[in-house]
Write a structure and sequence with these properties.
Layout lengths: L32 H4 L50 H6 L20 E9 L4 H19 L32 E6 L37 E7 L2 H14 L4 E12 L28 H7 L15 E10 L1 H5 L3 H8 L28 H5 L10 E2 L2 E7 L5 E11 L6 H7 L9 E11 L12 H5 L5
Helix pairs in contact: 3-4
Length: 460
């Protein structure tokens, strides 16, 4: 894990796995990211959106109904940049603004639940794929505002499936954010080869990796975060339904108990190893750090990625049973922090600056800290998971690590390589992996996910 506490990347789920939370990992938050991670956003979710006319039906072959006319939705206060400390909006179950310079769900205050899905593209029809992205955008615009998709879950044609699956009816928006990313393999399609960013590299094999191909990769991904798990699941389910025939789910992951925070004033969360995680993660209000470490600059190229970011997703299995039999002293030596307060070795308080040389050479915090990685910093947004048992009486549990950065080559990769000698590796293993280019935010009701990418090139 990466020590969230020290490194921005070193978050426990950071690059290596569970991490002590010392990772300043989060990068630097940009102005106005407090509500949706986008500077200058502020347009209420769903505000001004134009519902497309209902497309006629599904064919007998099973193609899904496209989005239809808008369904009236209850008015809810929308969190705008700079307004959301996380507590007020969470208590009200309100929405996070969908429109903005950056996509929500990156520097946005971290919600309690996650449903992450990676998709494979099933069509060679560029126009059909673009139409799906537009439909996805409209659905996301509505769902993040707490509204039903299309014509809703009932009241439509009795002979056709409803536009919305219905399990979120009556539920509040729960700060739902939907964040899309494009995998390296997508750029092998639709004449996009020349638009693949240089920073979107295939991740190398790291020491200790035992990756399951069925839980790795993907042409594109959608990260759904919300305070209500049913709201997050509803969002992914509806996007998968809308994409039927164009995309299919390759793999997905449910997460609970956020293991990092972009709101440092809040209590630092703990990972399944019991240690605080993400103590020094980048905050959503740290505009300078976000600009330096998280947001892609115009000069970085390509032009369509300006204002976007790069996401590394890693499924990190924790060997819970051996860890639970390890002495407290050894656990604290492995992380480089005490288990109670979360203070670094030799210090009294969690947020005291760590003295790395006081830690053991293979301590997680020491190896994940930016000072040990030439300043490399990432923004962590991880979640714990428990997926039953492995059939041998052991919990299939761990950390689903999400790291955002300006350049994967200067963020996750060098940090993860430095963690090759991490003492924590005895208790964790990376079993799933993916990397995605996360485009900038949807600016207004006429914009859609991926517009800049697909407008920048023509087939052939």
């Amino acid at each position: 894990m990466t020590d969230t506490t020290e490194n921005t990347t070193d978050a426990a789920g950071g690059t290596n796995g569970a991490t002590s939370g010392d990772t300043a990992s989060a990068g630097t938050a940009s102005a106005g990211t407090a509500s949706n991670g986008t500077a200058g956003a502020g347009t209420p979710a769903g505000d001004g959106s134009r519902a497309p006319s209902r497309r006629a039906l599904i064919g007998w072959g099973g193609a899904g109904l496209a989005l239809g006319a808008a369904v009236a939705g209850g008015a809810v206060a929308v969190a705008r940049p700079g307004e959301d400390t996380g507590e007020t909006v969470a208590a009200a179950g309100g929405p996070i603004a969908f429109h903005g310079t950056h996509q929500a769900g990156i520097a946005t205050p971290v919600q309690d639940r996650l449903h992450f899905a990676a998709f494979d593209v099933e069509t060679d029809d560029r126009e059909a794929f673009v139409a799906m992205l537009k439909d996805w955008t409209e659905a996301a615009r509505r769902m993040t505002a707490g509204k039903a998709v299309g014509d809703g879950a009932y009241g439509g044609l009795a002979e056709a499936p409803p536009d919305d699956t219905g399990e979120a009816l009556g539920l509040k928006p729960s700060r739902l954010t939907l964040t899309i990313g494009f995998g390296p393999s997508l750029f092998e399609r639709f004449g996009l080869a020349k638009q693949r960013p240089e920073a979107l590299v295939d991740l190398p094999q790291f020491a200790g990796d035992n990756l399951d191909r069925a839980r790795s990769g993907g042409d594109l991904c959608v990260q759904a975060c919300a305070d209500d798990p049913q709201v997050a699941v509803h969002a992914i389910r509806n996007l998968a339904r809308i994409g039927f025939g164009k995309v299919s789910v390759r793999w997905s992951q449910l997460g609970f108990g956020k293991t990092s925070s972009t709101t440092p004033e809040a209590q630092t969360p703990r990972n399944l190893m019991g240690f605080k995680d993400g103590t020094r993660n980048i905050a959503g209000t740290e505009t300078a750090r976000l600009k330096k470490h998280v947001w892609v600059d115009e000069k970085d190229g390509p032009a369509w990625m300006a204002g976007g970011s790069y996401l590394v997703a890693r499924r990190i299995r924790m060997h819970i049973e051996p860890w639970d039999r390890t002495s407290l002293q050894e656990q604290e030596d492995i992380f480089g922090r005490d288990k109670g307060e979360g203070a670094p070795v030799g210090k009294a308080k969690e947020r005291d600056k760590p003295f790395l040389k006081a830690m053991k050479p293979d301590a997680h915090v020491r190896l994940a800290h930016p000072d040990s990685n030439d300043g490399a910093t990432i923004l962590r947004r991880g979640y714990s998971f428990t997926d039953g048992s492995d059939g041998l009486g052991r919990l299939d549990a761990g950390l689903f690590f999400l790291a955002y950065q300006r350049d994967v080559r200067k963020g996750f990769i060098p940090i993860q390589r430095n963690l090759a000698t991490d003492a924590l590796n005895e208790y964790i293993q990376h079993v799933g992996s993916a990397v995605f280019a996360v485009p900038p935010g949807v600016r207004d009701a006429d914009d859609w996910w991926g517009r800049a990418l697909f407008s920048s090139t023509t087939e052939g």
